[in-house]
Amino acid sequence: MKILSAIQFREADSYTIKQEKITSLTLMERAGKACFDWLQSKKDVSKKYITICGNGNNGGDGLVISRLLAEKKQLYEVILLSVGNPSPDFSANFEKIKSLNIPVKELKEGDNLSFPDDVVVIDAIFGTGLNRPVSGWIGQCIEAINAKGNEVIAIDLPSGLFADKHTEGKVVEANHTLSFQNPKLAFFFAENEKYVGEFHILDIGLSSTFIGKIDSEKFYLRAEDIKKHFKKRKTFSHKGMYGHSLLIAGSKGKIGAAILASRACLRSGTGLLTVHIPQSGNNIVQTSIPEAMVMLDVNEDINTHIDLNSNYSAIGVGPGIGTSEQTKEMLFELIRNTSLPMVFDADALNILAANSDELKNVKPNSVFTPHPKEFERLAGKCTNDFEKHLLQLDYSARHNVVIVLKGAFTCITTPDGKAYFNSTGNSGMAKGGSGDALTGMILAFLAQGYEPSLAAILGVYLHGLAGDFAAMEKGVHSIICSDLIENIPQAFDHIN
After folding, report:
1. Residue 233 main-chain phi, psi, to 5 deg
2. What are residue 124's DSSP bridge partners?
3. The whole model's pTM is what?
4. Which of 147, 286, 485, 495 gets the highest tally of CB atoms within 10 A of its CB?
5. What whole-number distance in Å separates Cα of residue 361 and Cα of residue 344?
6. Average pLDDT over residues 310-331
7. Nearest-angstrom CA–CA distance, 280 and 260
């Protein structure tokens, strides 16, 4: 699913109106009705609502919702904030509201905004029509909304929030955001979580033909995107058809990272797995993962030398390996002496961050899987999430690597400038070992012959989906990485 800019949304509106030969009022009616239907399906119908409207098109959406709520006797009142000249469609809907004797409280600059404690607030002040930070009287009104603590539902975009750039100024803090047709970039960054709450995408019938032609390089991954790229296994299969993965992981005290990554790799379809570990991990790994072959390092406690004589298909390196001088030299030798697809995680990334000259030797389209602090070591600090996103895109392009920046809505960037935000996963996965499992999954897809960016996309989506299934069983507070790995089969079943 494409992520569109505010300008592209307005273009899609205009195109739909022209091609379908409908009025902009009809499209506004669709938007308001979609929001009303969501309220009826998701919320307690005994609740009362107030709509706080500006006098632009977002306010017009709010008036449509108000009228439909009034018909169900669920509207407490409309509060109108006078902010500039009303749009024609707002004015048309305002006349409808007045003709039906729906209660409206009109506030002008300097008036205090107040409402009861037990109503649900619908924010329809600005939407995507904002072009400057909110301050002054409207800022005070937004502060009043936030201070009350009522449940808040924002229409299209929380008022005060920019869709496509870092926001300063006052912003409504919504519990839910009802967004039209496609998501906004702002939804995917942690700095906006307290404003957006949980977002929901509502289809309002914008032209799919036009949206299909829009040039967008940012995408929101959904199940249908994954299904069309996933290869089904053939009836007459053998293990040699699905690749031989080499995983270099673990050190004394961190053999668990090798075990978790290995299990996830095997669960994700690799034909063969060899795991390279220090000698101290031999009994642990041989007992814990009988399906894996074990290659022991010459060192007791750390990985120091890799034998690449076997016919491997892809290599994963980093989970739990540490950053000792010998391990560092092993990593550099590996990078310089293989042309195989690779995924780098954890300490492998920390070593590269401290030795950036080695990046020139990394195979093009290698996959890097940093968490935010590891990415900061690689690419530098940022002042906000939008800046970090631009830095991630730049880093992928300059170093010709696929970056998987882990977190809520994990973002995958590719050397050609594309960005993919994940839709699966939950906060219960924010625990040690989750990243090791992701490395194993991406390695398995690389070994099976998936192109690196697609291996990253499939790995990230299915990793999050397995975490979602685990959370259904154990709850987000209690799941551990092993639960996630045990639910990888359910994730595969879901997309088959």
Report:
1. -75, 140
2. 53
3. 0.96
4. 485
5. 13
6. 97
7. 17
